[in-house]
Design a protein that fits this description.
Helices cover about 45% and strands about 15% of the residues. It is α/β, with parallel strands linked by helices. The chain has an eleven-stranded mixed beta sheet with strand order 1-3-2-6-8-7-12-13-11-9-10, sandwiched between helices. It has a two-stranded antiparallel ribbon with strand order 4-5. The protein is globular.
Length: about 450
């Protein structure tokens, strides 16, 4: 059974379907692994063992009677601690929400449960999901799988660590500015930012209703595609036959390459060469609308998040990590006219992006321009924290601002990712390209 703890979610699902693995034994194996792991408390905020074992027993009976609900029926996964779980705490990494116990599951969790997935527990995260680094002195800070002295990336920090350290086959996180893709890249995983609105946000502790998205962190693109479909409640897409031959990609210039550190840049260039060797056509492309969109992040995101959280925060500001508190309070600087004007400008930038990229199958960029920062230095140096956080989020937040989908793949160098932007609502097409790109990058 230990061999199965490193398998992909879909491989586990197929093994259950073939009768080679029993869901109850599989769940026990993961809980044994978690309970015996030194990082258990840094990865999981809480386990949902009673729920998981009940779900695993039901999945086992379905498997034996030939009534499986999906290819992942009986497969256990982890959930970021902002997805409501009925009867179990959901605190979004913040002391402000300590003791919060929802009465119902988030809709995406309901859909996953209806497909037979088993809920292992809730993973740690950046406080209220408002950081790309994963550093959270209020609760726990999961480490990076490639560097024990570094952070794992955020805000889905524990989600990434749960998969990277073999404490879950797959994880579900959220992405408002890169919170799935950054930790996925830094821990050598696949991470998908879905198009805003593709997956329900009902029952998710919000950061920004205009930019929040739900997405998986997995070992393979296939796993990501299947999990997205099951959470959405739609048929699993057919990814067979995907190829890069003749596919046109734009390699985004200017903003995404500025101040990129040596390792991520070298990994990005090597990844592009591998895509070209597999038959892809890659052309450089400058899109001025990218800089326009990035300049609007200030008035748009802090303004909305502070509006959503102001009363809760200001009732107990001393309960928050100061760097996160300061980021929220930036929202005070922007007026309603500033916010409205920024949205009008962002709509124009989105239209310009669409026009500039419509002829391409995808747009390429390094997922993050930096490697995972050192935890001790983040704790001691506020300037370093702010600089590294903004750099970590710079490339990924383009996808959120422009309202499109984006996929990160391991680029072949530890903690470096290749990001592919797809067109709005073309998530399945992006995943098909991702399967082919994944094969080229191995």
């Amino acid at each position: 059974m230990q061999d199965w703890l490193s398998k992909s979610a879909c491989d586990l699902g197929r093994a259950i379907g073939a009768g080679d693995v029993d869901p109850v034994n599989l769940a026990h194996a993961f809980f044994d692994r978690i309970e015996g792991h030194d990082l258990k408390d840094k990865v999981y905020a809480r386990l949902t063992k009673d729920r998981a074992m009940a779900e695993a027993r039901a999945a086992s009976q379905r498997a034996k009677s030939g009534q499986r609900l999906s290819v992942l029926d009986g497969v256990p996964i982890s959930w970021k601690d902002l997805f409501d779980t009925a009867g179990d705490g959901t605190e979004a990494g913040s002391k402000l929400l300590a003791g919060r116990v929802p009465e119902a599951d988030a809709v995406v969790l309901q859909n996953a449960t209806s497909a037979g997935l088993v809920c292992l527990g809730k993973t740690h995260m950046s406080e209220l999901a408002f950081s790309g680094l994963g550093y959270n002195p209020s609760t726990q800070t999961p480490p990076c799988v490639n560097d024990a002295s570094a952070v794992s990336g955020g805000s889905s920090s524990g989600a990434a660590a749960s998969v990277a350290f073999g404490l879950a086959p797959a994880a579900i996180g959220s992405d408002t500015g890169g919170s799935v893709r950054i930790p996925a890249a830094w821990n050598d995983l696949v991470g998908m930012k879905t198009t805003h609105g593709q997956l329900s946000l009902e029952g998710c502790v919000p950061l920004s209703l205009k930019f929040d998205t739900v997405g998986p962190l997995t070992r393979t693109v296939e796993d990501a595609a299947v999990l997205i479909a099951l959470m959405q409640g739609v048929p699993v897409p057919d990814l067979r036959g995907a190829s890069l031959k003749g596919r046109r990609f734009a390699a985004l210039q200017t903003s995404v390459l500025e101040d990129t550190r040596d390792a991520p840049l070298a990994a990005y260039e090597t990844a592009i060469a591998r895509l070209e060797a597999a038959g892809a056509i890659v052309e450089p492309l400058e899109v001025p609308a990218v800089a326009d969109a990035l300049a609007l992040a200030g008035p748009l995101l802090p303004g909305e998040v502070y509006g959503l959280w102001r009363d809760v925060i200001e009732a107990q500001p001393e309960a928050m990590y100061v760097e996160i508190l300061e980021r929220f309070r930036l929202g005070k600087e922007f007026s309603a006219p500033d916010y409205s004007a920024a949205w009008a400008q962002l709509d124009a930038a989105r239209a310009a992006w669409d026009a500039a990229t419509v002829a391409y199958d995808g747009v390429l960029a390094p997922t993050a321009p930096i490697l995972p920062p050192n935890l001790k230095r983040l704790n001691a140096d506020g300037v370093y924290y702010k600089t590294e956080n903004l750099l970590a989020l710079r490339n990924t937040r383009i996808g959120n601002l422009l309202g499109i989908c984006a996929l990160t793949l391991p680029a072949g160098v530890p903690s470096c990712g290749l990001m592919i932007f797809g067109a709005r609502d073309r998530d399945t097409a992006l995943l098909r390209m991702g399967v082919a790109a994944e094969a080229a990058l191995i």
